[in-house]
Design goal:
The structure holds two protein chains of two kinds.
Chain A lengths: L1 H38 L19 H7 L2 H34 L4 H8 L7 H11 L6 H8 L13 H30 L3 H8 L4 H26 L4 H8 L11 H11 L3 H36 L1
Helix pairs in contact in A: 1-12, 2-12, 3-7, 5-7, 5-10, 7-9, 8-9, 9-12, 11-12
Chain B lengths: L1 H38 L4 H4 L14 H7 L10 H32 L5 H12 L3 H15 L5 H25 L3 H9 L4 H30 L2 H6 L8 H5 L10 H35 L2
Helix pairs in contact in B: 1-12, 3-12, 4-7, 4-9, 5-7, 7-9, 7-12, 8-9, 9-12
The chains are: A mainly alpha, B mainly alpha.
C-alpha cells in the first residue's frame, strides 16, 4: 500500500514540476494561437469590433494566396533566410577553424568574437542604418574620402542595395553564434581519429571533409535549431532600417503582417498571414530538431 | 640541419601570420559596433560634418546627460522611465521564468515519464512562433483584459518567451551532475527535496545563473511584441524608445548612439560574466541529452 502510494507520487512529480511551464505556454501561446486561428476565419477589423463574429471560412487564406504582395514578401523571406543562414554557417565555420588553430590569446579572441552577440537586433538595425546612411554614414564617408566614388551611394534607398545591407546586418548579428558553437565542437573533438588519419596518409582536406566536418554537424544543427527559434528577429532589423521600403521592396513576411494588422487594421487577414509564417517557423525548427536528434544518435553509435 | 631550422622558422612565421590575420579579422568584425559606441561620445555637429571629421576632436558625456535630461539641453524622450520599465520588466520576468524553468528542467533531467520527448519538442516549437505573429492575438486578448500598455502585460508575455529556453539550458546543467550524488544523499536519509536543495541546486547554480542571464537579455532586447503592446511611459521599454528618435524631424544621431550604449552596457557585462557557462549549457544540453 505504502509502496503503491510512493510510486504514484514519483509518477506525479514530473507532471507537477512541469505544470507551471505548461500552464504558462498554454495561456500565453496556445490560447492566443487558437484565437488567432479563429480570427483568421473572420473579416475582423480593429475599427469594427462586431466583425469578429462573422465566420467567412477560408476567404482570408484564399485572398492572401492570390495576392502578389504576399507571395513577393514570402519568397523574399525564404531567399533572405537561405542566403543569410548559409553565409553565417560558412563564415562561422571559417572563424572557428582559425581560432582553433591559435594557441596564444585564444580566450581573448573568443571574447572579441562574441561582441556582436551582445547587440540586440534593434541595435544592430540602428547601427547599420547609421553606418549606411547616404549623407552622414561612415561607409559613404570612407568611400568618398578614399576617392573611390564622389556620389552618395543610396545603401538603404535603392531596393537591391537595401536588401544587401539588411542581409549584411543579419550576418553580422548571427555569425558569432555559429562560430562559438562550432568552436565548442572543435574543442570536444577527440584527437585519435585525426592522428590515425594522418598516419594513414590523408591530406588536410580529406581529414577535414571526412572526420572534422561530420563530427561538427551536430553542433551545426544545434546552432541551426537555436537560430531557427528566432529567425523572425529579422523583423526588428527591417523595422528600423527600411521598414519594408522603398515601396515595399524590402518587405519580409513579418513586416507585411505588422503593416496589414496594425497600420491597415485588417486583423483577420493579418492573422491568416501570421498563421502561414508560424507554420513555416515551426516546420523549420522541427526539421533541424529532427536533424539534431539523428546526428546525436549517429554520434552516440560511433562513440 | 639548416633545413630543419629553416622549416621551423618558416613554420613560426606562418603561425605569427595566422595570428595576426585572425586578430585583424576579429577587430574588423567589431568595427561597426565600436563606431556606434565612439559616436555616442561625439557631438552631433561632428557626426554630421561634411567633409567628415575622422579623428574625434571633442569627446564628452554630454549626449548621455541630454538623454537622461540633465543639463540645459534635453531631448524630448523620457529615456529615464524607459530604462526603469526595461529593468523592472526584464528582472521580474527573468525571476519567474527561472522558478518555472528550474522545476521543468529538473523534471526533464531526472524523471522518465510518458510523452517526455513530445512535451520537450512541443515547448520548443511554441518558442518558434514569430514574435510579430504572436503579437496579433495577444494584442487582441490583452486589450480585452486591459493589459495593453501595462508592465504586467509584457511580463507575462516574456515569461512564456523565456520558459522553453530556460528549461533547455537548466535540463542540460542538471544532466551534468551525476545522479549518484543525490541517490547517496537519499540513502543517507535525505528526502528527495533535501537532496535537490542541498546537493543538486548548489552544483547547478552557475548554470542556472547563465540561463537567467539569457532570459534577462531576451526580455531586455525584445522589440516585436513590445512595440505593439506598449503605448506610453507606463510600459515602453528601451528598444521601443529607441525608435522615438526616428519620429522626430531631424534624427538626433548622437542621442540615438548614446541610448544604444545605455542598452548595450548591461548586455556587455552580463554576457562577459557567463559566456563560459552559456556555451557549455547550449552544447551539452543539446548533444548528449
Amino acid at each position: 500500500m505504502i509502496r503503491a502510494l510512493t510510486t504514484r507520487r514519483t509518477e506525479m512529480a514530473p507532471f507537477l514540476l512541469l505544470l507551471p511551464a505548461v500552464a504558462t505556454m498554454l495561456f500565453v501561446v496556445a490560447l492566443p494561437l487558437i484565437f488567432s486561428l479563429w480570427t483568421s476565419l473572420t473579416p475582423y477589423k480593429l475599427t469594427k469590433p462586431n466583425t469578429l463574429y462573422d465566420f467567412i471560412g477560408l476567404t482570408n487564406y484564399v485572398r492572401i494566396f492570390g495576392d502578389w504582395d504576399f507571395w513577393e514578401a514570402f519568397l523574399r523571406t525564404i531567399g533572405f533566410l537561405t542566403v543569410a543562414l548559409n553565409v553565417e554557417f560558412a563564415l562561422g565555420l571559417g572563424i572557428a577553424l582559425l581560432i582553433n588553430k591559435i594557441t596564444w590569446g585564444q580566450r581573448g579572441l573568443r571574447t572579441i568574437m562574441m561582441f556582436p552577440m551582445m547587440f540586440s537586433p534593434i541595435l544592430v538595425g540602428f547601427q547599420f542604418k547609421f553606418l549606411f546612411n547616404d549623407h552622414i554614414g561612415v561607409v559613404n564617408n570612407a568611400l568618398q574620402s578614399l576617392g573611390l566614388t564622389n556620389r552618395a551611394i543610396p545603401w538603404l534607398v535603392d531596393a537591391k542595395l537595401a536588401m544587401f545591407s539588411i542581409t549584411l546586418a543579419e550576418v553580422w548579428m548571427s555569425t558569432s553564434i555559429f562560430a562559438i558553437l562550432l568552436l565548442a565542437g572543435l574543442f570536444a573533438m577527440p584527437r585519435d581519429p585525426l592522428e590515425a588519419a594522418k598516419v594513414d596518409g590523408c591530406n588536410a582536406w580529406q581529414v577535414f571533409r571526412h572526420i572534422t566536418l561530420p563530427f561538427l554537424m551536430p553542433f551545426a544543427y544545434i546552432a541551426m535549431a537555436i537560430r531557427s527559434l528566432d529567425v523572425a528577429r529579422a523583423y526588428d532589423l527591417v523595422a528600423v532600417m527600411t521598414d519594408g521600403g522603398p515601396a515595399g521592396r524590402t518587405e519580409l513576411l513579418w513586416t507585411l503582417i505588422a503593416r496589414v494588422g496594425y497600420d491597415e487594421a485588417k486583423m483577420g487577414q493579418a492573422n491568416a498571414m501570421a498563421y502561414v509564417s508560424t507554420i513555416l517557423s515551426i516546420l523549420f525548427t522541427w526539421y533541424f530538431y529532427r536533424k539534431l536528434v539523428a546526428a546525436r544518435r549517429y554520434m552516440g553509435g560511433a562513440e | 640541419m639548416t633545413v630543419t631550422v629553416q622549416s621551423r622558422a618558416s613554420k613560426q612565421a606562418k603561425r605569427i601570420a595566422l595570428w595576426f590575420t585572425t586578430f585583424a579579422l576579429m577587430l574588423v568584425m567589431c568595427v561597426p559596433g565600436l563606431w556606434v559606441v565612439l559616436s555616442a561620445f561625439r557631438p552631433n555637429r561632428e557626426i554630421l560634418a561634411k567633409p567628415p571629421v575622422w579623428i574625434p576632436q571633442e569627446l564628452s558625456l554630454v549626449n548621455f546627460g541630454k538623454v537622461f535630461g540633465f543639463g540645459a539641453e534635453q531631448v524630448g524622450i523620457p529615456v529615464g522611465s524607459y530604462f526603469a520599465n526595461s529593468l523592472i520588466i526584464a528582472l521580474t520576468s527573468t525571476i519567474i521564468a527561472l522558478i518555472i524553468g528550474i522545476g521543468g528542467g529538473y523534471a526533464f533531467a531526472r524523471y522518465r515519464f510518458r510523452f517526455k520527448g513530445g512535451l520537450f519538442l512541443g515547448l520548443m516549437l511554441f518558442r518558434a512562433v514569430p514574435g510579430i505573429a504572436l503579437s496579433l492575438p495577444v494584442f487582441m486578448m490583452w486589450s480585452k483584459l486591459g493589459l495593453v500598455d501595462t508592465k504586467l502585460g509584457l511580463i507575462i508575455v516574456y515569461v512564456s518567451l523565456n520558459v522553453p529556453f530556460t528549461i533547455w539550458l537548466i535540463d542540460g546543467f542538471f544532466r551534468q551532475i551525476p545522479q549518484a550524488l543525490s541517490e547517496a544523499a537519499q540513502v543517507d536519509g535525505c528526502t528527495r527535496w533535501q537532496a535537490f536543495w542541498k546537493i543538486e541546486f548548489p552544483l547547478a547554480k552557475s548554470g542556472i545563473a547563465a540561463a537567467g542571464v539569457f532570459a534577462f537579455l531576451t526580455s531586455w532586447n525584445e522589440f516585436a511584441l513590445a512595440s505593439q503592446l506598449t503605448r506610453s511611459t507606463d510600459s515602453k521599454t528601451l528598444p521601443v524608445g529607441l525608435l522615438d528618435f526616428t519620429a522626430q524631424f531631424t534624427i538626433d544621431w548622437a542621442g540615438m548612439c548614446a541610448m544604444a550604449v545605455i542598452i548595450i552596457i548591461p548586455a556587455l557585462i552580463l554576457t562577459f560574466i557567463v559566456q563560459k557557462h552559456l556555451i557549455a549549457g547550449l552544447t551539452f544540453g543539446g548533444v548528449k541529452g
